[in-house]
Design a protein that fits this description.
By secondary structure, this protein is α+β, with helices and mostly antiparallel strands. It is about 35% helix and about 25% strand. It has one domain: Aminopeptidase (3-Layer(aba) Sandwich), CATH 3.40.630.30. The termini are far apart.
Length: about 150
């Protein structure tokens, strides 16, 4: 497996993967051509040094996974950096092969290299299998998360 920074050419497969589950189907808009909003978001992510939109390729150079790793600088923890992992997806036909574990190991290593003092994530409570996987990777539910949706 190869981890690399996503390019504009990867955006369609990334959006296809993030829309390919019960929750993604309700909030994403995967179509050809892709709506401009996705391309605009990619440009913002791509130019931000604290964002890493990553794709994972198999030995045939096919994109089989994606994740976004964000590094958040703040004053607490003595000016610490918090890493946040989002939008972790594996192509449907490649799930259950240990790819997710390798992706998280990569993200943990990358977070340590950036001197983050922690790596965090959120997961919808409607994804119990994902939560169990995150726990198997060492993540603990230490805080209660809250959100306000504006749309």
């Amino acid at each position: 497996m190869k981890f690399r920074k996503a390019t504009k050419e990867d955006i369609a497969i990334i959006v296809e993967m993030i829309s390919d589950d019960e929750l993604g189907k309700t909030r994403e808009n995967f179509q050809t051509p892709l709506p401009q909003e996705y391309l605009s978001a990619f440009e913002k992510i791509n130019t931000d040094p604290n964002q890493e939109l990553i794709v994972v390729e198999n030995d045939n150079s096919e994109v089989i996974g994606t994740l976004q790793l964000s590094f958040i600088q703040y004053l607490t923890y003595q000016g610490g950096i918090r890493a946040q992992i989002e939008a972790v997806r594996i192509r449907k036909d490649k799930r259950g092969l240990g790819i997710g574990k390798k992706m998280f190991e990569w993200a943990i290593k990358k977070s340590k290299e950036r001197n983050a003092h922690l790596l965090q994530l959120t997961s919808d409570k409607k994804r119990p299998k994902a939560i169990k996987f995150y726990e198997s990777m060492g993540f603990k539910a230490t805080h209660e998360g809250m959100k306000i949706h504006f749309k």
